[in-house]
Amino acid sequence: MTDTQKTLPLAVFDLDNTLADTAHRQHFLERKPRDWDAFFAAAPQDPPLAEGIALVLRSAQECEVRYLTGRPERCRRDTLDWLAAHGLPEGRVYMRRNDDRRPARRTKLEILQRLARTREIRVLVDDDELVCEDAERAGFTVVRARWTAPSAALKVAQEREGRT
Questions:
Q1: Quick count: other Cβ atoms within 10 Å of Cβ 105?
Q2: Is 14 helix (H, G, I), strand (E, B) or coil?
Q3: What confidence tens digit (pLDDT) does each residue in 123-163 have?
């Protein structure tokens, strides 16, 4: 990390339905039981979301970009490959432990608060309303990624099942 990067504020971006369009794999969450292995295995085929991609590229001009996802750690290689394949700025990726089933709003807020102890966080960009509400209550500036259709199955996965 360069001295300049150490002084830049952070722009923190979610992945699923913020930068990556998960619509093509939602059907794996709509069945009983949910097929989590297939859901995550299909992530490398996610199309990029133009609005999110444009925002992360603009943010990288003034901030150091970090990625904060509810995806489990076992998806790291696919996630890093996807970010690189779509020309996104390099940045540390924070992922959920494979066995962590807490709600996304809890896991993400903990990481944001930890980062904020040593760095200014300019913005969090996320599609999960509960994550956004909790982050705003904690004093963070939030941009709600509302450029995809909300998915009830994904909302349950993020909040109740702690899976993404």
A1: 20
A2: coil
A3: 999 999 999 999 999 999 999 999 987 766 666 655 555 55
CA distances 46 to 19, 61, 79, 121, 128, Å, are 9, 25, 10, 27, 18
In contact, 62 and 10? CB cutoff 8 Å: no
Q: What is the pTM of this model?
A: 0.88
Strand partners, 67: 13, 93
**Nearest-CA neighbor of 40 among 83, 84, 79, 88?**
79
Distance of alpha carbon 97 from the chain centroid: 14
Residues in the chain: 164
Task: Give 19's contacts (C-beta < 8 A, 6+ positions apart).
Answer: 13, 48, 49, 52, 53, 56, 86, 88
